[in-house]
Design a protein that fits this description.
Blueprint lengths: L4 H12 L5 H8 L3 H13 L19 E9 L4 H8 L5 E6 L6 E7 L2 H12 L4 E8 L10 H5 L10
Antiparallel strand pairs: 1-3, 1-4, 2-3
Helix pairs in contact: 1-2, 1-3, 2-3
Length: 160
């Protein structure tokens, strides 16, 4: 699937003003609401647009500590460990990685003591050989994709 100028413009509009409805975006782009809806659905079906949940700041919920945990996993246990991590509410993200370690997890906690409790639970997971935990001090660049969409060359081909 090629992203044409209209797809790119719709993505930019959705990212720049996510609370505005498709009708208003269509009006701003000078296209029919049905066209905007069809493009939106096509982008969604192709996996370009994913998720509809609001972004929630863990700090606002009382999770003031963010840490990055690198896990070293027993060979053949990666999937089982990842499935177990998905059951731990404080594990908000996990990725298979290359380099020093096998899995990387972003963990939130209410306090350092709570973080220690969470990490001890992770260490106790069958297949986890060892971990390394690094506490984040300040978020300098929040998760974002708008600059990527702005930088897309014309006719960019998203993976389908």
């Amino acid at each position: 699937m090629d992203l044409d100028d209209l797809d790119r413009a719709l993505l930019l509009a959705l990212l720049e003003r996510p609370r505005v409805g498709l009708r208003e975006h269509a009006r701003a782009l000078g296209i029919a609401r049905g066209t905007a809806q069809a493009r939106f659905l096509r982008l969604q079906e192709r996996g370009v647009i994913v998720g509809f949940e609001p972004q929630v700041d863990p700090e606002a919920l009382g999770y003031d500590v963010t840490a990055f945990v690198t896990l070293h996993i027993t060979q053949g246990r990666l999937d089982a460990v990842a499935e177990h991590l998905a059951t731990i509410p404080e594990v908000v993200e996990a990725h298979s990685i290359t380099g020093d370690g096998d899995l990387w997890a972003r963990v939130v906690a209410r306090t350092n003591a709570h973080l220690e409790h969470v990490v001890q639970g992770i260490i106790g997971t069958p297949g986890v050989e060892r971990t390394r935990t690094e506490i984040a001090l300040t978020e300098r660049v929040a998760h974002r994709v708008l600059p990527l969409v702005r930088a897309l060359p014309r006719g960019a081909r998203p993976r389908t």
